[in-house]
Amino acid sequence: MKPFLLLASRAEDGAAEEEYESYLRFGGLLPAQLHRVRMEAAPLPEIDLDRYSGIIVGGSPFNSSDAEETKSPLQLRVEKELGALLDVVVARDFPFLGACYGVGTLGRHQGAVVDRQFGEAIAAVPVSLTSEGRRDPLLDGLPDTFDAFVGHKEAVSKLPAHAANLAGSPGCPVQMFRVRSNLYATQFHPELDVAGLLTRISVYRNAGYFPPEEADAVMDSIRSRNVSVPPLILRNFTARYAR
């Protein structure tokens, strides 16, 4: 099969490596089947979509809704490169799954309103499928409501008319959406288990998601949670689009 392409932008090696391993494990992929490009490390090379089965965009420390004048040169470069790639991906309806940061990138590219209105603290929250979500093949086998790990400062507050809202939570009405037939983004993290989230809490304790002195309490609130459904989305994605 052709490999999938993971576009990552985490500068911290520990978090980056654990993220890559989680996409391999939950996607049911071998290392040769998931080609990773770390966008924070160097400019994005030319991407030949015909070499890949699909694209996955991982999480990121960047927020698409930040004021342009506050964005670093690195963030501006990554956004510009992703935007240019999405021009082609959307035009071809090429298989795409963006996790968390994918909501901001694909959402803004498609004209969604992405702002700070529906940010969520780090937690496991109940996510419920919409009627459209219950019919979507990427959500096949998932229950109508399931717990998922979240932790984000921005979210979609208004989708464009051509996008389908597939899932929401009490604190965030757009937890997953689809554009055309094959372009998806989730606000929650389908690649995270408890161990992975604990790593990120430690790595990003000073990133403004919570007061740094509360990191241990946030970790304690996560350790007892049983979140097992969201990774099924990754397995559905790789199974559906592997070619």
UniProtKB/TrEMBL annotation:
PANTHER family: GLUTAMINE AMIDOTRANSFERASE YLR126C-RELATED (PTHR42695)
Domain of life: Bacteria
Membrane-spanning ranges: none
UniProt key word Ribosomal protein: no
Alphabetized PROSITE patterns for the sequence: GATASE_TYPE_1 (PS51273)
InterPro entries the UniProt entry points to: ChyE-like, Class_I_gatase-like, GATASE
Keywords recorded for this protein, A-Z: Glutamine amidotransferase
Upper classification of the organism: Bacteria, Bacillati, Actinomycetota, Actinomycetes, Micrococcales
Occurrences of domain Glutamine amidotransferase (ranges): 35-192
Protein's name in the database: Glutamine amidotransferase
